[in-house]
Write a structure and sequence with these properties.
The chain is α+β, with helices and mostly antiparallel strands. Helix content is 19%, strand content 56%. A three-stranded antiparallel β-sheet has the order 1-3-2, covered by helices on one side. The radius of gyration is 14 Å and the shape is elongated. The two termini are 15 Å apart.
C-alpha cells in the first residue's frame, strides 16, 4: 500500500432546483479539470427566498482529491 497525499479545494455550487443539484453541479464542473476527486463535505448551505418560497440554493463544499 502506498502513502497518498490529499488536497482540499473549496467550491460553491448554485441551483434553482435543489441542494443536491447545487452539489452535483459543482463537483461535475470541478471534475473537468481536477483528477482523482475522492470525497466532498458540505460546509455551508444558503438560500434565496422570493414570495415566501425558496427560489435558489447556494452550497459551499470542500472536495478532496489525491495528488499525483
Amino acid at each position: 500500500m502506498s502513502n497518498n497525499i490529499y488536497k482540499l479545494l473549496e467550491l460553491t455550487g448554485s441551483s434553482s432546483i435543489s441542494i443536491e443539484d447545487a452539489v452535483t453541479t459543482a463537483i461535475a464542473k470541478a471534475h473537468e479539470t481536477v483528477r482523482h476527486i475522492s470525497w466532498f463535505t458540505v460546509t455551508e448551505t444558503r438560500g434565496h427566498v422570493v414570495d415566501g418560497k425558496v427560489a435558489h440554493w447556494q452550497v459551499s463544499l470542500k472536495i478532496g482529491f489525491t495528488l499525483e
